[in-house]
Specification:
About 80% of the residues lie in helices and about 0% in strands. α1 packs antiparallel against α2. It has five helices and no strands. By secondary structure, the chain is mainly α.
């Protein structure tokens, strides 16, 4: 019974990851568009581009709130602090039926970070916090 509850919570978390991915990809697209406008020197549309980026950020905040709830539920089930429930630990502990989904999210998240110019060392330092 406990394993099926944990699997259900992980399935909900996987679903929230899918819902969060679309706005993240949309955000990357909007940032690229704003960058193209900036490089082209066409300032007429910069305000609109920034407003669109801000609208997508609002969608990301909502998706992140839903994902945070899922992380909290899985953390309670695992009896660990929520900050220990990262994509890597989900990949390691996920049942076979969900492992590929979490692996895919991990790859997409890392690729997005790279496209935005974040190095793995920088991300790791942020995750570890001040030393």
């Amino acid at each position: 019974m406990a394993a099926s509850i944990e699997n259900a919570q992980m399935a909900r978390l996987a679903d929230s990851q899918w819902r969060a991915r679309r706005p993240l990809e949309h955000h990357l697209f909007k940032l690229v568009c704003a960058n193209v406008l900036t490089i082209a020197g066409d300032r007429r549309f910069i305000g609109l581009a920034i407003a669109e980026v801000d609208a997508v950020v609002a969608q990301i905040r909502l998706a992140e709130a839903l994902r945070t709830g899922g992380v909290g539920a899985v953390a309670c089930e695992w009896n660990v602090p929520a900050f220990e429930v990262g994509l890597e630990s989900l990949v390691e502990r996920a049942p076979e039926s969900l492992r590929a989904a979490f692996e895919d999210h991990c790859v997409v998240f890392r690729n997005s970070q790279t496209r935005l110019g974040f190095s793995p060392q920088r991300i790791g330092a942020w995750q570890r916090g001040p030393q």
